[in-house]
Write a structure and sequence with these properties.
Blueprint lengths: L6 E8 L6 H15 L2 E6 L13 H12 L5 E3 L2 H4 L6 H12 L3 E8 H5 L15 E6 L5 H5 L4 H7 L3 E2 L13 E5 L7 H9 L10 H9 L5
Parallel strand pairs: 1-2, 1-4, 2-3, 4-5, 5-7, 6-7
Length: 221
Amino acid sequence: MLKSKPILIGIFGGTFDPIHYGHLRVAEEVVRTIGLQKIYFVPAGIPRLRNAPIASPKQRTEAVRLAIQDNPNFVLDKREIYRDGISFSIDSIYEFKQEFGEEIGLCFILGADAFIKFSEWDSWKEFFNLCHFIISTRPGYTHTSINDLLPKELKDECSKRWVINADDMRNETNGLIFISSATMLDISATSIRKNIAAGKSVRYLVPDVAINYILESKLYL
């Protein structure tokens, strides 16, 4: 009897301070082009490698909930918000793996800029035993062009893991790296916060329901 190929689930973490259409467009294209069953949005509680977010964990989570509520492929996951102390993504990946089981392939979604610094993450080598990576970047980038930017230790770890066909990730449950050339909207959370503070419109940068919540909560002012 042939072994069935694993279902692929996306894990999309971040501070989401605030969530915007850049995040949502990447997630939408990854679902469609790779055929993920779901993408779990995992807002970070207290990040380790960047300054603390301006909005509270509860506020950032509520904005994410509002922004994704109409998409049946998107799921809000609050585990890092409820976890005490600094948020370590490896803890969440371990938990997801335990909850979904070995028959599910977890796909950790990262931007190319974050992946280049991935070897600075806690327990970074352990990720390859637990999940695949989907690297979201601009069209035209290849594993070669990204690989050239990686520090040596990370480059060596990745050397035999790159795949050019997303279906290859269905043959394994972890350890592969696929580049998704998504429509990268030139939107940053930093510029959104600055615009809000200056009283400028952020319509069409952030979903209206999230904008309304941000303004009602007097965030980023």
